[in-house]
DNA sequence: ACTCGTGCCGAATAGTGTGCGGCTCCGGCG
DNA sequence: CGCCGGAGCCGCACACTATTCGGCACGAGT
């Protein structure tokens, strides 16, 4: 994981579809060298994949929210089951098992406020292990797609 | 945004680096047709970009957390300033402006628990507009990289 | 029936990915 | 000090790919 690897990672985070030649030229190395590095990064698990970034509105998802959920009892089995159930739902974009007052943070993405409400009462309230939840509608968000190594 | 467009979006969310030919063959259309569709999706803003998915551990980020922040006063100026300041920090992966008890949700990614603590006391406590915060360490997470249109 | 517009296709060309042999650099060791 | 071995980078050649463009088919409107 030297300077060249970091640079490759940085570039591919920003634009995963630039040609290998362009990437190599930008970093000042030969295409073959660059290709070999990229393949090693893949093999080592540093690069886990390449994904298109899609506008949620185009998929009819105009409302996003975080739902904090408290489970009862917070046992391994309950947590795993809930996590799997949530993740399987199309409205759910991400699931986080967290420490603190709440046990879960579920990132949901739905067409409308009505759909959010339906989701909450049909998919959460209905589940016995849900001891309580609180939802935070997202007004604005900014995600980073480039992360540098720390330290 | 017909069935073919949706299929293209689905495929490119899963693997943004597959060749146009492979994509076309998988969807049963000619490569030239497929290419034209992809370009239109780009132009329409449906496809916003292509990003490599990088293992955070490889970038020396072994601890992730959500930090909920309450601001004082929650005015537009304070919110915008805080958002920009947070987003500029390398430890911050995402910033969400939310409704509810808290005003912000900051997704941070750091090398260690010590680094998280340092971040909290050096970057948050220090800021005057921060009226309070609560951090939730992420034990486990699952993100989806494929989202289908809803309804 | 005719025309126009839209979208798809297939072929041709320019450009790209990929494997491989050889080169250079550098550290270890006699 | 000279030699050896390995690692990493390079450039070339070939197969494959992206991209452009003219043409065709289909459906709507007149």
TrEMBL record, chains A, B:
Residues 1-62 form the HTH asnC-type domain. Keywords: DNA-binding, Transcription, Transcription regulation. GO terms for biological process: response to amino acid. It holds the Pfam family HTH_AsnC-type. One of its GO terms (cellular component) is cytosol. GO terms for molecular function: sequence-specific DNA binding. The keyword Iron-sulfur does not apply. This is AsnC family transcriptional regulator. It comes from Nocardiopsis sinuspersici.
């Amino acid at each position: 994981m030297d300077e060249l690897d970091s640079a490759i990672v940085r570039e591919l985070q920003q634009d995963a579809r630039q040609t290998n030649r362009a990437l190599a030229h930008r970093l000042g190395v030969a295409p073959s060298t660059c290709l070999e590095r990229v393949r090693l990064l893949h093999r080592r698990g540093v690069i886990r994949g390449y994904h298109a970034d899609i506008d949620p509105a185009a998929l009819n998802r105009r409302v996003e929210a975080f739902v904090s959920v408290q489970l009862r009892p917070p046992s391994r089995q309950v947590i795993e089951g809930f996590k799997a159930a949530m993740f399987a739902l199309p409205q759910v974009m991400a699931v986080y098992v967290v420490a603190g007052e709440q046990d879960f943070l579920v990132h949901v993405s739905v067409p409308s406020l009505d759909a959010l409400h339906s989701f909450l009462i049909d998919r959460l309230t209905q589940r016995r292990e849900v001891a309580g939840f609180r939802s935070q509608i997202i007004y604005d968000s900014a995600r980073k797609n480039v992360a540098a190594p720390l330290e």
